[in-house]
Automatic annotation (TrEMBL):
Membrane-spanning intervals of the chain: 6-32, 44-65, 85-115, 127-149
Family: Belongs to the TspO/BZRP family.
Membrane topology summary: Multi-pass membrane protein
Superkingdom of source: Bacteria
Compartments (UniProt record): Membrane
CDD domains recorded: TSPO_MBR
A single cellular component GO annotation: membrane
Primary localization class, coarse: membrane
One of the Pfam families matching this protein, by short name: TspO_MBR
Entry protein name: TspO/MBR family protein
UniProt GO BP: tetrapyrrole metabolic process
C-alpha cells in the first residue's frame, strides 16, 4: 500500500474514532453539575488540544507500522489507543469517575512504556508522544481531583 494512503487511513481512523467518541459521550448536565478543581480548563480548550494530539497519535501509529518497528511498540500503540477511546464512555456515559481514573492511570503507564521503548528505535515517535504524556498527566490529575471533590 502506498505510504501516503496508509498515513491517510491512520489519520482517518484515529480522528474518526475520536470525533465519534467525543460526540457520543459529550459532557452533559451530569458533568456540568460536578464540583471541579480550580485548575479545570475552559471547555473550549479540549477540542483543539485533542485534535492536535490525535493528529500526532495517528502519525506516530503510522510510523510504527510503516517503519516495521517492534511488535511491542505496535502493541503499546494499540493499547494506548484502546484505553484512550475507553476513558470517555466510562467517565461521561457511565458516569464512573473512579473507574475512569483507573483507565486513565493505565493509559498514562502505557504512554510512558511506549515512550521508553520508542526512545531508542524511533526517537521522533517518542518525542511526539511527550505532549500527549503531558496532557494525559494533567487529565489524570483533573480526573483525580473530580473524584476527590465529588
Amino acid at each position: 500500500m502506498n505510504k501516503y494512503v496508509s498515513l491517510l487511513l491512520f489519520v482517518l481512523f484515529v480522528m474518526g474514532c475520536g470525533i465519534a467518541i467525543g460526540t457520543l459521550t459529550a459532557p452533559g448536565l451530569w458533568y456540568a453539575a460536578l464540583e471541579k478543581p480550580s485548575f479545570n480548563p475552559p471547555n473550549w480548550i479540549f477540542a483543539p488540544v485533542w485534535t492536535l494530539l490525535y493528529l500526532m497519535i495517528a502519525y506516530v501509529g503510522w510510523r510504527v507500522w510503516h517503519m516495521g518497528l517492534s511488535t511491542g511498540l505496535k502493541r503499546l500503540w494499540g493499547l494506548q489507543m484502546g484505553l484512550n477511546f475507553f476513558w470517555s464512555p466510562v467517565f461521561f456515559a457511565a458516569q464512573m469517575p473512579v473507574l475512569a481514573l483507573l483507565v486513565i492511570g493505565c493509559l498514562l503507564v502505557a504512554l510512558l512504556a511506549f515512550v521508553k521503548e520508542a526512545w531508542h528505535s524511533d526517537r521522533l515517535s517518542a518525542v511526539m508522544f511527550l505532549p500527549y504524556v503531558a496532557w494525559v498527566s494533567f487529565a489524570t490529575a483533573l480526573n483525580a481531583a473530580i473524584v476527590i471533590l465529588n
